[in-house]
Write a structure and sequence with these properties.
170 residues; alpha+beta; Jelly Rolls; 8 strands
Length: 170
Amino acid sequence: MKNALINRISFITFKKGDLIHDANKVCTRSYFIQKGLFRTYFIKDGKEISEYFPAEGEWSNSPKSFRTRTLDIYYIDAIEDTEAFSLHVNDLVYLFENFPEMERYARLSMGTIFGHLMERITSMRFTTAKEKYNHFIETYYDIHHRIPLGMVASYLGITQETLSRIRSEK
């Protein structure tokens, strides 16, 4: 399995601000972040809404587009200079079909992301702005200080002014 993976994966670097995935294209690659930080977001009414911040040790792609090979709403960009491993969807399918441990790994990874998204939905629907921010700090305890405040505010669904007030109360 190791050789099959090595033959299909490639190493790539991105500069801060690089667009990794454009929502106007089908997502055909998944990235495993070795060092750095991405942001997954969508655009609504001309505003960028941050959805997820994958960092070291995590995979990143536009899940629906990657899985169904259709367009989706998500863009991905690099918040920092980033080093990552890249895998094409066809190569991933090959690995899943030929190595059951790869499929198991993917299921476990997806389970982690699903749990995170369920917590996020609950936080967005049933908590105050301050509670949303506290949940964000807990969720991204190791990287929150690396994420620009405007992106944090859009992730939380609040204004930067509200975020500033909440942060000044701490």
